[in-house]
Specification:
The chain is of the alpha+beta class and 263 residues long. Helices cover 27% and strands 24% of the residues. The chain has 4 helices and 15 strands. Strands 1, 2, 4 and 5 form a 4-stranded antiparallel sheet that branches. The chain is globular and about 45 Å long. The two termini are 28 Å apart. The protein binds 2-amino-4-trifluoromethylsulfanyl-butyric acid and cobalt (II) ion (2 copies). The site of one cobalt (II) ion (CO) has 5 residues, from strand 4 and strand 5. One cobalt (II) ion is lined by residues 98, 100, 109, 111, 242.
Length: 263
């Protein structure tokens, strides 16, 4: 963890764009192949292969001992789900796929939710949670411009989630983060925060916003079995969307936006 915020030069930003483009391309492709009956291990194999084909390295592999190339987190898994052949996706599941690619010396980190078997296979509760969480990310991104503070992002997300009056919980233990040459750098990007607090947002900063929203309690539970998988404490569904964002002179640029125009 780099302690101070790094400001990227225009040259560094161009290099980092390529890592972000690889990540977005792979997520687009995951959307095309994901289907009922597939194991999360198969998603891992796919992401691993495509990452290599696109000239990149999967950042999660061996990161702090993480054993796979991508995090795949279905239903009540909040984040850091470890792909396995015995985790089989079924119609009606919602699943987060979190891809981070390393290329040109830089990381690009993004995650999306997928409806297994299509949106119509999933419950109204699941669809509402997924779309609200996506909107929460967009609300956070909209805060990003020079002169604002990092705390404004979490404050906006918190206000938005509260206004839905759905009783959703915002996860606090895991946060967005700066990234660039390191997978996780300063600043920490809280999804629950107070306005006008935290690091001043400056051009050239690159960081993720990645709200995790639970249909029930915000409380989390870390697996004692594998030491990675984070679940909702009450077994409720959880959703997450993530983008890598660049601060520009006039606002922001979503570096991991889909080349296909998806989210
Ligand atoms: N991609 C995750 C994030 O958004 C981090 C995964 S760490 C891993 O920050 F080790 F689980 F891969
Ligand atoms: Co991620
Ligand atoms: Co991240």
């Amino acid at each position: 963890m780099v302690e101070r915020v790094t400001i990227k030069t225009p040259q560094e930003i161009e290099l980092m764009r390529e890592a972000c483009r690889v990540t977005a391309t792979i997520l687009d492709e995951v959307g095309d192949i994901i289907k009922p009956g597939m194991s999360t291990e198969e998603i891992n194999s796919f992401v691993h292969r495509r990452t290599a084909e696109l000239g990149a390295i999967p950042s999660p592999l061996n990161y702090k001992g993480f054993p796979k190339s991508v995090c795949v987190s279905p239903n009540d898994v909040i984040c850091h789900g470890i792909p396995a052949p015995f985790v089989i996706l079924k119609a009606g599941d919602i699943v987060n796929v979190d891809v981070t690619s390393f290329k040109n010396g830089f990381h690009g980190d993004s995650s999306r939710m997928f409806f297994v078997g299509g949106e119509s296979a999933c419950s109204d509760e699941a669809r509402e949670l997924v779309s609200t969480t996506r909107e929460a990310l967009m609300v956070g991104i909209r805060e990003v411009r020079p002169g604002k503070r990092i705390g404004d992002i979490g404050a906006a997300i918190q206000d938005f989630i509260r206004a839905t009056k759905r009783g959703y919980g915002i996860v606090r233990e895991y946060t967005g983060h700066g990234l660039g040459r390191e997978f996780h750098e300063a600043p920490q990007v809280l999804h629950v925060a107070k306005r006008n607090t935290g690091e001043l947002i400056r051009p050239g900063m690159t960081f993720t916003i990645e709200p995790m929203i639970n249909a029930g309690s915000a409380r989390t539970s870390l697996s004692k079995v594998d030491g990675w998988t984070v679940r909702t404490a009450d077994g409720s569904l959880s959703a997450q969307w993530e983008h890598t964002v660049l601060v520009t002179d006039s606002g922001h640029d979503v570096m991991t936006s889909s080349p296909k125009g998806l989210f």
